[in-house]
From TrEMBL:
Belongs to the TonB-dependent receptor family. Keywords: Cell outer membrane, Ion transport, Iron, Iron transport, Membrane, Receptor, Signal, TonB box, Transmembrane, Transmembrane beta strand, Transport. It is a multi-pass membrane protein. It comes from the Bacteria. PROSITE patterns: TONB_DEPENDENT_REC_3 (PS52016). Residues 422-754 form the TonB-dependent receptor-like beta-barrel domain. Residues 1-19 form the signal peptide. This is TonB-dependent receptor. Residues 54-165 form the TonB-dependent receptor plug domain.
Length: 799
């Protein structure tokens, strides 16, 4: 039973395709009666063959629908991942607010994320987008997914996703249930958190030969647990499935539209202020604010066609559009060299100077914005900033499954293109309500269709095989992925030198990524496995610069990883155990140095990092009602050489690291324990998590003789963030009604951080910067963790 729970969400092959491997006759040539019989056989054999996924040669963790369904509104698709080994995650708001995550020490921007097998990450910059964009809200929300698979390291090619040097997180959307119903739900929680909405399933629509549709709409609003960080999220999902060819094939369609509107903290507040005013203190919005309004639209159209017992073909076409609006303000009296703290990281806090019309818009705007003339000083005239960005991705992901004796072959690919803009712009001025005028107070022209037009096209193909030998005891998984990336970036303004006119940066990269996995059934329940895989992540488009000749493009190559794993897995009827060790050597990590006086940056591939560790996870069904599961992991992540680097997972701090330094914000130890109970209509779970000590960072003095080290952030092994435990409680009870059309009412209770522990998620020491230079004495800054969160829910089912 546990095996079915563990692997039921595995998305590699649909039920019909996978089961058909055991059927030697062509179902399409059978009579209708024979087809019905054979379909029943296929379904039965599929349920058995799912157990075969226990032979995967890589570590894998699954978060199932039960864990997702009973999560609170305070959680997100990222916080759920802390229930798996080696994942550290935190966020600064209720729900999907500015998530920060590492897997085995590898940060979110270096991970692949897929949605129903298509890339949901930003192809231009990696992760969910560039720094300080798309930090509020997500492409898909908790209520829209049915499962998550986590593949740390390098996964087999057909599950690896695009561009990763440390892992793949695979999300699966909800599919239309076979039962017809409608649910209306609401939740009320701490910090003025309210959630309400509905979902509905059509079941099999009569007269449509099996067509089913499902839709869900929900809205959450909250004041946030940190002062002055209100947020509102609206999520919409529509999905449909149309079987054909007696259910052996199917067409699927999905539309997701999510919006988010919220205030965030672009930099932690000073610990001295948190000690004085309370750990959850934040500046009033009239003094300092960072607002984001984000939109995410996703559409996926898929088909899986059964040809015969040896061949299944399919493809998914997709469209993803993201739009991000960021508005930041900092009161002029806080923009001063004498003020002891740096309040908002992203807002102007020193003089940019007037925008030269010869660079921004030659011959169009006769006068430039002069902050001194308009507001009397640079700080007063540059107290506000607006960034507008957007990108659109279109693509297709074909896939062919070939089943022959002793071999399951998968051939697949990805052709996708992401384009940034139009409609973007960066504006600096005295107040947020000033007009946005290109050439006056803007570096970008929002009305130009080619303004800062970044574009990246992906051509990727993979071939993988699973060879079953020695009476189906030895399983060999060879595979290879070949990826080519063509990138261009049209820059309308050369801000830093000659030539002053617009120019285009372009580059082409390619990588060949091999994979080899081996697993052996030592007994019917014990499996030994080992794997090697290479992964690559391509440089963000923003890292491309104009060469010294004025006509060449200088672009970093991909950063790569060689990942090794070995492990032992036990899969029994009521017990599952997995123990593995890993080594990940990362090469050519992106390095850059920015001259703040000129704004000019240089980029290179010179960084070396290494992650190694051990992981253990398991689950045991004590009886049909009680289950216990847990995990513990140890990670040692360190820099192998010295180089200029982005030092923290959120990428807001960059500076210099030294050979032998541990990676900051990566706990050596992580652990979790879950005790679950389910009996008829009652569900309950008690969860405990442990996050071990983490190395923090500090800024080197601005008096350093080496300009690379002046005010540079670097790991601080001598100061570690204190470890913390968190206890969460979930409970729900379904009350049968069966009156009129109301069939049941469900009451739920969630208490996150049950013991109300106060702790810090992120901590470091820094110098305040003014005019892009460190000033004053160093001081500590920190993000607080969420206190106790209590939420009560009520839902009614109509059928």
């Amino acid at each position: 039973m546990f095996t079915a729970i563990l692997f039921a969400l595995y998305p590699a092959l649909d039920a019909v395709a996978y089961a058909s491997t055991a059927n030697n006759s062509d179902v399409s040539k059978s009579t209708p009666t024979e087809k019905v019989v054979k379909l029943r056989e296929i379904k039965k054999k599929y349920e058995k063959i799912l157990v075969g996924e226990r032979n995967i040669a890589s570590a894998m963790s699954v978060i199932g629908p039960d864990q997702i369904k009973h999560s609170s509104s305070a959680e997100s698709i990222y916080s759920l991942l802390k229930q798996t080994p080696s994942v550290n995650e935190y966020q600064q708001n209720i729900g999907p607010g500015t998530p920060v995550m590492t897997v085995r020490g590898v940060r979110m921007s270096q991970l692949a994320q897929t949605l129903d097998g298509i890339p949901m990450t930003d192809l231009l910059s990696g992760g969910q987008g560039a720094y300080l964009s798309n930090n509020i809200g997500t492409v898909i929300s908790n209520g829209q997914i049915s499962g998550i698979h986590v593949y740390p390291g390098v996964a087999p090619p057909d599950r690896g996703g695009f561009a990763t040097v440390g892992g793949t997180v695979s999300y699966t959307t909800k599919t239309p249930p076979k039962k017809r119903y409608a649910d209306i739900f609401t939740k009320v929680g701490s910090f003025s958190t309210d959630t309400y909405g509905f979902d509905a399933s059509s079941g099999k629509i009569p007269g449509t030969d099996g067509l089913r549709v499902y839709t869900r709409l929900s809205q959450t609003q909250t004041d946030g647990y940190i002062q002055n960080t209100p947020a509102r999220y609206t999520d919409f999902l529509f999905t449909a499935i149309k079987p054909y060819d007696y259910g052996l094939s199917k067409v699927t369609g999905t539309v997701i539209y999510n919006t988010a509107h919220g205030y965030m903290i672009s930099a932690p507040n000073a610990v001295a202020q948190l000690d004085k005013y309370g750990i959850f203190y934040n500046y009033p919005l009239s003094e300092a604010s960072t607002l984001q309004r984000n939109q995410y639209l996703t559409a996926i159209l898929g088909d899986s066609t059964y040809i015969n017992s040896h061949l299944v073909i399919g493809a998914k076409a997709f469209y993803i559009h993201k739009h991000s609006y960021l508005a930041g303000y900092l009161a002029p009296n806080l923009i001063s060299e004498s003020y002891p703290y740096q309040v908002n990281f992203n807002n102007p806090y020193s003089g940019y100077g007037p925008l030269p019309p010869t660079a921004a818009s030659p011959g169009v705007i006769p006068h430039t914005y002069d902050p001194v003339a308009m507001f009397g000083s640079y700080p007063a005239g540059e107290a506000a900033q607006i960034n507008i960005s957007g990108n659109t991705t279109i693509g297709i992901a074909p896939k062919v499954n070939i089943f022959i004796p002793h071999n399951d072959i998968t051939i697949g690919g990805l052709v996708a293109q992401e384009t940034a803009g139009p409609g973007g712009g960066n504006y600096f001025y005295g107040t947020l309500d000033m007009p946005k005028i290109y050439g006056y107070n803007s570096y970008g022209n929002p009305s130009s269709p080619t303004n800062n037009k970044q574009q990246r096209t992906i051509y990727s193909g993979y071939l993988s095989d699973k060879i079953n030998l020695l009476n189906n005891k030895l399983h060999i998984e060879p595979g290879v992925t070949i990826t080519g990336v063509s990138t261009s970036n049209y820059v309308p303004v050369n801000q830093y030198g000659t030539p002053p006119q617009a120019y285009t940066l372009s580059n082409y990269d390619k990588e060949v990524l091999p994979y080899l996995g081996l697993s052996y059934d030592v007994t019917n329940k014990v499996i030994a496995y080992a794997s090697y895989g290479k992964g690559a992540r391509f440089a963000p488009v923003a890292d491309y610069i104009l060469g010294p000749s004025g006509s060449t493009t200088l672009a970093p190559g991909p950063e790569t990883v060689n990942a090794y794993e070995t492990g032992l897995r036990y899969v029994g009827k009521h017990l599952y155990l997995n123990f593995d060790g890993f080594l990940q050597n990362m090469h050519g990590m992106f390095s850059f140095y920015t001259n703040y006086l000129t704004g000019y940056s240089q980029y290179a591939n010179i960084g070396e990092e290494q992650m190694k560790g051990l992981e253990f996870s398991g689950k045991y069904e004590l009886n049909p009602e009680w289950t216990i599961s847990g995990h513990v992991s140890y990670t040692n992540a360190q820099y192998m050489n010295s180089f200029s680097a982005t030092v923290t997972p959120f990428e807001g701090q960059y500076g210099y690291v030294f050979a032998g330094n541990p990676l900051a914000s990566v706990p050596n130890w992580l652990a979790g324990l879950r005790l679950g109970y389910h009996n008829h209509n009652f569900h309950a779970a008690l969860m405990e998590s442990y996050t071990g000590p983490q190395v923090t960072t500090y800024d080197l003095p601005p008096t350093e003789s080496n300009p690379l080290l002046q005010d540079a952030t670097t790991p601080n092994p001598g100061v570690k963030l204190a470890p913390y435990f968190l206890t969460n409680l979930q409970a729900s009870y379904r009350v049968p009604i069966h009156q009129d059309h109301l069939s049941s009412i469900t009451v739920s209770l969630n208490i996150d951080n049950l013991l109300d522990n106060h702790y810090y998620l992120h901590y470091y020491q820094a110098y305040k910067e003014y005019a892009f230079a460190g000033v004053g004495n160093p001081y500590a800054e920190a993000y607080p963790g969420m206190p106790r969160f209590i939420e009560v829910g009520l839902s009614g089912r109509f059928s």
